[in-house]
Design brief:
By secondary structure, the chain is mainly α. 52% of the residues lie in helices and 6% in strands. It is built from 8 helices and 2 strands; from the N terminus they run H-E-H-H-E-H-H-H-H-H. The longest helix has 18 residues, at 122-139.
């Protein structure tokens, strides 16, 4: 059951858990009623969150959410026959979210977990990977035919990055 009150509660708990009251926040959501309801809008405003909604009739404008849902649906543990009840679904989703954030090495993040990126462990992990690969390459140069993988941090990630129109040229600005 989707309700604006439940969605607003989730957002409020997330802001408190992350202790990000004073930092600017943007919530990207779909155009569903719970996300556009008065309760949700009021909660977002009170928490200083700017709402960003999907474009009408476009389901794939949030690559991060799309990657999450695709990974979820194609996990071997995904129940092909559905869940018996809400409690079973909640247990499965909780385990999946923990795996996705704390164990799964994301290729788009240079094979670190979202949690390691979020907590600042990313730099240490990438340096360790770079050393490991450099040592392996030095020990077995014939095994390495191409360039070594780039183990540099990917830097900030933005859902809809602002374009520098003056530097991008007319073609990119359109």
């Amino acid at each position: 059951m989707e309700r604006a009150e439940l969605a607003a509660g989730v957002i409020q708990r997330a802001v408190w858990a992350e202790a990000c009251i004073a930092r600017p926040k943007v919530l990207h959501a779909d155009n569903g009623a719970p996300m556009k309801g008065v309760t949700m809008k009021t909660t977002l405003e009170r928490l200083g969150i700017i709402a960003s909604y999907s474009r009408p009739r476009v389901s794939n404008d949030n690559p991060f959410s799309e990657a999450l849902f695709r990974t979820c649906k194609y996990r071997p543990a995904w129940p092909r026959t559905g869940f018996a009840d809400k409690a079973q679904a909640q247990v499965w989703v909780k385990a999946f979210v923990n795996w996705y954030n704390a164990e799964h090495l994301h290729s788009a993040l240079c094979f670190v977990t979202p949690n390691s990126r979020h907590t600042g462990e990313e730099l240490r992990m990438l340096a360790k990977s770079a050393d490991l690969y450099a040592n392996a390459r030095a020990a077995n140069p014939q095994r390495w035919t191409g360039k070594a993988r780039n183990w540099q941090p990917i830097g900030p990630v933005w859902l809809n990055p602002e374009r520098d129109v003056s530097a991008a040229g007319i073609r990119d600005a359109a």
